[in-house]
TrEMBL record, chain A:
GO terms for molecular function: protein histidine kinase activity. This is Chemotaxis protein CheA. InterPro entries: Bact_Chemotaxis_CheA, CheA-like_dim, CheA-like_homodim_sf, CheW-like_dom_sf, CheW-lke_dom, HATPase_C_sf, HATPase_dom, His_kinase_dom. Residues 590-720 form the CheW-like domain. The modification Phosphohistidine is found at H48.
Automatic annotation (TrEMBL), chain B:
Residues 9-125 form the Response regulatory domain. The gene is cheY-1. This is Response regulator. The lineage of its organism: Bacteria, Pseudomonadati, Pseudomonadota, Betaproteobacteria, Neisseriales. Pfam families: Response_reg. It comes from Chitinimonas prasina. Keywords: Phosphoprotein. The modification 4-aspartylphosphate is found at D58. PANTHER family: CHEMOTAXIS TWO-COMPONENT RESPONSE REGULATOR, STRESS RESPONSE REGULATOR PROTEIN 1.
UniProtKB/TrEMBL annotation, chain C:
This is STAS domain-containing protein. Signal peptide: none annotated. Pfam families: STAS_2 (PF13466). Residues 13-107 form the STAS domain. It comes from Chitinimonas prasina. The lineage of its organism: Bacteria, Pseudomonadati, Pseudomonadota, Betaproteobacteria, Neisseriales.
């Protein structure tokens, strides 16, 4: 078994469960009555499941801590504990703490200290333990005493699996004696298959005499059984086949067998995709046990609760956790074979990346084949290769879409962020989410989360006014912050908006001048002024609180977004609010590109960003100003020859490719237009690293390398040139108004 | 049921003489006492006060079928807690369930090997 | 099954003879409880128990627990072969094995 791979699943599961727990906590805060009970149940289950899974991996600290949480939640849902604000706060903290512990395991660092939180949790348990008998807490203490410091946990919590014995747990049904089925006979028969090493009779189920039906059975047994050779789980289970329907039978194999199951599961042929099937084939689970647990699962589902089979198997002690983990591992190996029952399949992200890499190679080879075919002038071949190319293109799209996840994955954390921030700042905030289903690349999702949290906190801190100010402006007392996501020409746009006071341009300008970011007389357009808040050193924490604008750490946000080849736009209307718009590419792997040539060098421009192509007017070709008049609009342009120092004479006729990113446009001057292609983005080689304006490289069908242009960076540079020039003109104009006409393009 | 030094008695009720005999022989060799009956009615007649530790009954029999027989046994004060093994066939899942409802909680599927029958019997009573 | 009782003052010697199984369980429960309620101290003689099943041992357990609850001393002795077989299988020698004074103070 690959324990590490299984652990990855555990992390994923834990994060999902923690998210569920958080959602439930938020709901509990706002709910009452039976609805509240349902949310408490959900929280309890989340804690319980994490505990169970953590036990699989011997993560004893997580087990111990989640056990405390679980116990407190159990009391809460039983109504033995009042849901107070401090308790909810504590549970929020505990949830985060569990997350921290999981993170710590993941990163291989020491787990955060739990004792203080643990003590707080315990105080809730102790309070009630005195008034009400607390079986859960009592059982826990007993277990710890017996198990000592080495808590070898499995989630039933009752027993410690040990030694080379089978552990058989029997709870006879109440009617077995009346049916002529005496436990004595079954146990004797069991003894004929080996040796009963130890047997404990449990009779705490025996009621008081007045309630006791003398014909009913009230006994249970815990048996340590040393099986004869060749006695497997099925054989043992068959001992109890006649009472199976009414009684609870749990058979846990000895360690040696667990290893054997794992070996069998690992050696299983390809094509097994169902967890239960894998476990049954491996001998870790009997068909009847599988039926039983599927029955439980159905019942749960009927109650509106979906529980993974693996979790149930471990909880019900039907199969050893290690074997379940091995089977999950096996199952993942066959994840591609979707079964009707698994609508969602977990795939290791690295494997997806490997697939996409391969698809990339396929695209390149396809292009090479197309090139050769067209040279051969064999029309049948050309046709075949063309249809092959179409298929490759579809495969590429499908493969890329596998990495797509809904942006809702990030959005779901914001109710908590907003709740915390609004409490901290004493502001009443309402959060609105839209476009959660918008998909983007998984790697983007991970990297967008932090910048978004930052922006949302900032909106609450600096965007939304105090309620007094709001009332004066005739706004609702509570402020609204919204998150919205949508697709726009090959990019994903995520907006963070608020209905606060808007940004004060004059103040931003003043501060920027004060900080030495701009000259006092520098001419900036509106967007450029607003963008100043993203400049490093624009503001510091202590000044920001007095500022109605924005500030803290916004330069970090901008850096993060730019690292994703994205950009930021701000819309702000004084008194009405602000929208910050993040625009990032859908994916970083393969793009549709437009190929251009300068001398012998090929460049690729992402096709989404190409607006149009036109000839470079000969009269402006050597102009220092680098402006074009595009149907009455000023279009700054950059000659790629100069920019990348291409050492070849310019041809008589050059072309301009007009590109757009966000709301900005620029022209790129090239020698030739070479048409569309699919470009598999490869990292830049050592030679080009550090060259600005390049986003990566790609290999052409001919085997030559083409450079992919970083259009946002180029547009930015063109715009900066423009800004500098406009400032220059303005300055000159002030001194020599007569020059004005000349300098205008 | 424990300790009695005398042998345990099994009643086999089936309309097939050969089947009764095979079972009889196997159980005898394993150390049980066996009494036979050809149908439910005869089976009830055998429950005449003697101690019977286990009953094996077929489902389909003339006169009184297995289900009716089981129901009748469950009414007899001295025999109502006797374990009963039903002999069913794969095709008669409904009969098996009916038998279980009536109180026959154990079963052996026909056709069976004598050892299979012995295993089923010894789960319920040891010789 | 036969349950007989002999009283020396309030000390009761209960003797169980024959089978103590599910067939006798209803009747046995009544008798055992009646005697326990009457007596101040009970000695259960198991020498005559010829057959014991799970229903039977549950009754003995019940008797023992109820005596403890009523704070009446209760002993088992003379375990027959049939009793020992079940007690051994159920690993309950600690419960039924040596005569032990169960209730507080009477030791």
């Amino acid at each position: 078994m690959n324990l590490e791979a299984a652990k990855l699943v555990f992390y994923e599961e834990s994060y999902e469960l923690l998210a569920a727990m958080e959602a439930a906590l938020l709901a509990v805060e706002n709910a009452a009555g039976p609805e509240r009970g349902e949310h408490l149940n959900a929280m309890f289950r989340a804690a319980h499941t994490i505990k169970g899974s953590a036990g699989l991996f011997g993560l004893n600290e997580i087990v111990a801590f989640t056990h405390l949480c679980e116990s407190v939640l159990d009391k809460a849902r039983e109504g033995e504990l009042a849901i107070t604000t401090p308790l909810i706060e504590l549970l929020f903290t505990c949830r985060d703490h569990i997350g921290g512990m999981v993170d710590a395991v993941r990163c291989g660092v020491a787990a955060p200290e739990s004792s203080a939180l643990g003590a707080q949790l315990k105080s809730y348990l102790d309070d009630t333990a005195q008034a009400v008998p607390a079986p859960a807490a009592a059982a826990m203490v007993v277990q710890q005493e017996h198990a000592g410091p080495r808590v070898e946990v499995e989630s039933g919590g009752d027993h410690v699996v040990s030694s080379d014995h089978w552990h058989i747990s029997l709870r006879f049904g109440v009617d077995v004696l009346r049916n002529g089925m005496d436990p004595i006979s079954f146990i004797r028969y069991l003894a004929s298959l080996g040796r009963i090493a130890y047997l404990t009779t449990l009779y705490d189920g025996l009621p008081n005499p007045e309630d006791m039906d003398p014909e009913s059975c009230y006994l249970g047994f815990e048996i340590e059984f040393q099986a004869a050779p060749n006695v497997d789980k099925l054989t043992i289970e068959n001992v109890f086949e006649f009472i199976r329907d009414d009684s609870k039978v749990r058979i846990l194999p000895p360690h040696a067998h667990i290893a054997e199951y794992i070996r069998l599961i690992k050696d299983m042929p390809e094509g097994m995709s169902r967890l239960g099937e894998i476990l049954v084939r491996g001998g870790a689970l009997t068909p009847m046990e599988l039926d039983e647990v599927l029955g439980i699962q159905r019942e749960n589902a009927g109650a509106g609760e979906h529980r993974p089979l693996g979790t149930l198997l471990v909880e019900e002690r039907l199969a050893p956790p290690q074997a379940v983990a091995a089977a999950l591992d096996k199952q993942r190996e066959h994840a591609a074979q979707k079964t009707r029952e698994h609508r969602v399949v977990r795939v290791d992200a690295t494997r997806l990346d490997a697939l996409i890499d391969l698809v990339g190679e396929l695209v390149i080879s396809g292009a090479a084949a197309q090139l050769s075919a067209s040279r051969s002038a064999d029309s049948a071949l050309i046709e075949t290769i063309a249809s092959l190319g179409e298929l490759v293109e579809r495969i590429r799209d499908e493969a890329l879409s596998l990495r797509m996840v809904p942006v809702g994955e990030i959005f779901s954390r914001f109710p908590r962020v907003v709740r915390d921030a609004s409490r901290e700042l004493g502001k009443d905030i309402q959060l609105e989410l839209a476009g959660e289903e918008t998909e983007l690349d998984k790697s983007m999702v991970d990297k967008l989360a932090d910048p978004l949290v930052h922006l949302v906190r900032n909106a609450i801190d600096h965007g939304i006014e105090g309620s007094d100010a709001r009332r004066i402006r005739g706004k609702a007392d509570y402020g609204t912050v919204w998150l919205n996501a949508y697709h726009e020409s090959g990019s994903v746009v995520i907006e963070v908006g608020d209905d606060g006071g808007g940004m004060d341009r004059q103040r931003i300008r003043n501060r920027a001048v004060e900080r030495g970011l701009i000259q006092a007389d520098e001419v900036l357009n509106d967007q450029q002024v607003l963008q100043l808040v993203f400049e490093p050193g624009f503001s510091t924490a202590e000044t920001v609180t007095n500022l109605s604008g924005r500030g803290v750490g916004m330069d970090v946000v901008k850096r993060n977004i730019e690292a994703l080849k994205g950009n930021i736009e701000i819309d702000s209307v004084a008194g009405e609010g602000t929208v910050v718009r993040l625009r990032v590419p859908l994916t970083l792997a393969i793009i549709d590109g437009f190929r251009v040539g300068v001398g012998q060098v090929s460049f690729v421009i992402p096709l989404d960003m190409v607006l149009e192509c036109l000839d470079l007017p000969t009269d402006t070709g050597n102009s220092r100003q680098h402006y074009l008049n595009l149907r009455g609009e000023v279009l700054p342009y950059l000659p790629l020859r100069e920019l990348f120092e291409v050492d070849a004479p310019a041809p008589a006729r050059q072309s301009v490719v007009v590109v757009q990113y966000g709301s900005q446009r620029a022209g790129l001057v090239v020698d030739n237009l070479e048409g569309e292609l699919q470009a598999v983005i490869k990292p830049l080689g050592q030679l080009f690293r550090g060259v600005r304006g390049l986003a990566g490289s790609t290999i052409l069908g001919s085997g030559a390398v083409a450079l992919i242009l970083d259009v946002p960076d180029l547009i930015n540079r063109a715009a900066k040139n423009e800004r500098r020039k406009v400032a220059l003109i303005a300055a000159r104009e002030a001194r020599h108004p007569a020059l004005r006409e000349e300098d205008r393009p | 049921m424990a300790a009695a030094d005398s042998k345990k008695t099994v009643l086999i009720v089936d309309d097939s003489t050969s089947l009764r005999q095979v079972v009889h022989l196997a159980l005898l060799q394993a150390g049980y006492e066996v009494i036979e009956a050809a149908d439910g009615k005869e089976g009830l007649a055998r429950l005449d006060g003697r101690r019977v530790h286990l009953i094996i009954s077929d489902v389909n029999m003339p006169n009184m079928d297995g289900i009716a027989f089981v129901r009748a046994v469950k009414q007899l004060p001295d025999y109502r807690f006797t374990p009963i093994i039903m002999l069913t066939t794969e095709a008669q899942e409904d009969k098996k369930i009916e038998g279980q409802m009536a109180g026959a909680k154990a079963w052996v599927v026909k056709p069976f090997q004598p050892e299979q029958m012995l295993r089923a019997v010894s789960k319920l009573i040891l010789p | 099954m036969a349950i007989s009782s002999i009283y020396h003052h309030e000390r009761c010697i209960l003797r169980i003879d024959g089978s103590l199984t599910i067939y006798e369980a209803g009747e046995a429960k009544r008798r055992l409880m009646d005697e326990l309620n009457l007596a101040r101290e009970v000695e259960v003689d198991l020498a005559g128990v010829a057959e014991l099943d799970t229903a039977g041992i549950q009754l003995l357990l019940m008797l023992k627990r109820e005596a403890a609850r009523q704070e009446k001393p209760l002993f088992f002795h003379g375990h027959s072969k049939a009793v020992l077989a079940v007690v051994d299988l159920y690993n309950m020698a600690g419960v039924f094995g040596d005569p032990v004074v169960l209730a507080g103070g009477a030791g």
